[in-house]
Amino acid sequence: RYLLVFDFDETIIEENSDESVVRTAPGQELPEHIRQTFRQGFYNEYMQRVLAYLGDQGVKMGDFKAVYENIPLSPGMQDLFQFLSKNHELFEIILISDANMFGVECRLRAAGVHSLFRKVFSNPSSFDKRGYFTLGPYHSHKCLDCPANMCKRKILTEYLAERAQEEVEFERVFYVGDGANDFCPSVALTAADVAFPRKGYPMHRMTQDMEKKQPGAFQATVIPWESAVEVARYLQEVLKK
C-alpha cells in the first residue's frame, strides 16, 4: 500500500480558501485596518481577526459554506480523484491543510470525494453561540521554518509513527502540494518517495534551490505538475510495475 498526502489550498483547489471567504465581506473586500494586522508566520491569528470581522458584518455559516463549496478545483484534480476512486484499496489518502476543518470538509463533500480520505488534519474551526465562525491553531511545535500554528512535517511523521504502531507500513509516500509549508514535510521523505510540487509555486522553487545548494540533500523524486492528470499518470505507471 501507498500513502498519498494532499495539501488543500492551491493544490486540491485553485485558490487560497482563506482569501476566498473575503467574498462574503461587504464589497467583497476587507478594511485596511484588518489587512494591516497581518504578520508573517502568524496567518492563523490574522484569520481569526478576519473571521471576527465577518461575524460582525452578519456573515453566517450558510454564506461561508456556499463560498467553500463553489471554489474551483485545480486543473485535472477531478481526473485524479476518479483514478483514486478506482484504485482506492491501493492508496491510503490523508490531507494536511493550514486552512480550516469546516472549509476543507465542505469542499471535499461538495466534490463527492470526502470518503476517499482516511484522515483530514486542519486547524479546528466551529461556529460559536453568536453564529460567528471561529478558528484555532492546530498545535504548537518547535520547527523554525513553519507558521506558529502548524508544522506539516510534525503531523506527517507522527502519522507514520502511529500507523507503524498499528503495523501498517507503506511501500512509498507520495506528497502533493504547492506551498512553503509543504516543502518542510517533503524534506523528510526518503529516496523511495515522490514529491509532487505544483509547477512554479513556492514548494517547487524551494526544491530547486535545495538541489542547487545541496545536491542530493532532497531525497525524494521530484515530479512537478501543472495539471493533476500528470500526478494520476505517474501513479498509474507505479501501479503497472
From TrEMBL:
<dbReference type="Pfam" id="PF06888">
    <property type="entry name" value="Put_Phosphatase"/>
</dbReference>
<keyword id="KW-0479">Metal-binding</keyword>
<feature type="binding site">
    <location>
        <position position="18"/>
    </location>
    <ligand>
        <name>substrate</name>
    </ligand>
</feature>
<feature type="binding site">
    <location>
        <position position="98"/>
    </location>
    <ligand>
        <name>substrate</name>
    </ligand>
</feature>
<keyword id="KW-0495">Mineral balance</keyword>
<feature type="active site" description="Nucleophile">
    <location>
        <position position="7"/>
    </location>
</feature>
<keyword id="KW-0460">Magnesium</keyword>
<protein>
    <recommendedName>
        <fullName>Phosphoethanolamine/phosphocholine phosphatase</fullName>
        <ecNumber>3.1.3.75</ecNumber>
    </recommendedName>
</protein>
<dbReference type="GO" id="GO:0035630">
    <property type="term" value="P:bone mineralization involved in bone maturation"/>
</dbReference>
<feature type="binding site">
    <location>
        <position position="7"/>
    </location>
    <ligand>
        <name>Mg(2+)</name>
    </ligand>
</feature>
<dbReference type="InterPro" id="IPR006384">
    <property type="entry name" value="HAD_hydro_PyrdxlP_Pase-like"/>
</dbReference>
<dbReference type="InterPro" id="IPR016965">
    <property type="entry name" value="Pase_PHOSPHO-typ"/>
</dbReference>
<keyword id="KW-0378">Hydrolase</keyword>
<feature type="binding site">
    <location>
        <position position="178"/>
    </location>
    <ligand>
        <name>Mg(2+)</name>
    </ligand>
</feature>
<feature type="binding site">
    <location>
        <position position="9"/>
    </location>
    <ligand>
        <name>Mg(2+)</name>
    </ligand>
</feature>
<comment type="similarity">
    <text>Belongs to the HAD-like hydrolase superfamily. PHOSPHO family.</text>
</comment>
<dbReference type="GO" id="GO:0016791">
    <property type="term" value="F:phosphatase activity"/>
</dbReference>
<dbReference type="InterPro" id="IPR023214">
    <property type="entry name" value="HAD_sf"/>
</dbReference>
<dbReference type="GO" id="GO:0046872">
    <property type="term" value="F:metal ion binding"/>
</dbReference>
<dbReference type="GO" id="GO:1903561">
    <property type="term" value="C:extracellular vesicle"/>
</dbReference>
<dbReference type="InterPro" id="IPR036412">
    <property type="entry name" value="HAD-like_sf"/>
</dbReference>
<feature type="active site" description="Proton donor">
    <location>
        <position position="9"/>
    </location>
</feature>
<dbReference type="GO" id="GO:0030500">
    <property type="term" value="P:regulation of bone mineralization"/>
</dbReference>
